[in-house]
Amino acid sequence: MEKRKKKNKLYIFITILISCFLVFLFFIFRPYSYEKKYQVNKYEIEEKYDKETGYYTFLIKEDKIIYPFLIKHNYSNKRELIDNIKEYHNDKEKCILPQNNEFDMYPLCSQNDFVYAYHLSNLKIDDFKEEKIKSLSKTYKEIELNYLNNKSYLIYNYRGFYSIKEDANKEIPLFKNDIYNLNLIYEWKEYILVPDYNENYYFSKIYLFNIKTGTYEEIKLEKPISFDSVFLGDYKNKVYLLDKKEEQEYAINLRNKKVEEVDYLILENKKLVKKNYKDIIVNNLNFLKQDYPEYKLEDHILYQDVLNNKIKISNYEVNKIIKVEDETVYYLAKDTLYMYNPYLGEIKLLSNFEWNFNNTNIIYIF
Questions:
Q1: Cis, bond preceding 293 (omega within 30 deg of 0)
Q2: How far is CA 173 from CA 152, 159, 163, 212, in A?
Q3: Is the model's pLDDT at 24 over the cut of 50?
């Protein structure tokens, strides 16, 4: 009996010890947002980690120039990550390549205190190898296919969509007549929602497209909804739409494909909050979120904004930002869709002459 008590006590002690150790490890390796300032050679560095976004930010300062780096990577409990900064020069420009032992970084360049992406530079950095791509050099329905980046595309063609993927392309007819402006359309994860534009003034069904598979299904409405409506946003597998003509808000459940009338709801601080109709309309309230990383157009020039520090991304005249996904941005310049990634550079994806004239709600990528 005495031996059994001692064994039980030992078992309890070991259990407590292991539990304490696991709790210790949890707190040691748990991600924390932090800020840290330090210096490497002549460069002043502000290092930040944001646990909400999962991004590291490094502002590397030299005199008046700030090179802003934004990198998505798993959290490290180490601090002062950058241990060396390599420099590359010619008569007019300079590039830097930060180095650390946790993850690969990419170069940024400058000229006359102006910072831009490495692919816009004339310098060649042997220590940084951009991944080479293999061009498709194909054409489908007058769309030139250069590179797809392992993505699926839905391209609107006025009567439906073209589904373009690595392994297959197909046409998806939808409307009887040409519809030049899809003013009411919404993208949610790998889906897009399109009302039935075969109808006039009111629609009684919504097409739910899967961009990844190039297929769609219909969501039938018990009560017609006016085309004078606006998508407010999404929350927990539901997309919210406001019928301005009838002054009624709806929640479209994309799991069970049901549509229900709801109060006037807006997402605030990750919670649905009741509002009145006038507030939503007058103040243009919605659920829509700011893309992160943040890209912006200024006089058709594409910049990445990192904590109010700009990086020029392209020399092309950019008409529209199509999508931001992690460290990659997709954008339209005249009739050509491009992508930029700091590790890959700028890559031509698709071209379509029609995009010179219409680029609104026309391209969807997953």
A1: yes
A2: 18, 6, 11, 17
A3: no
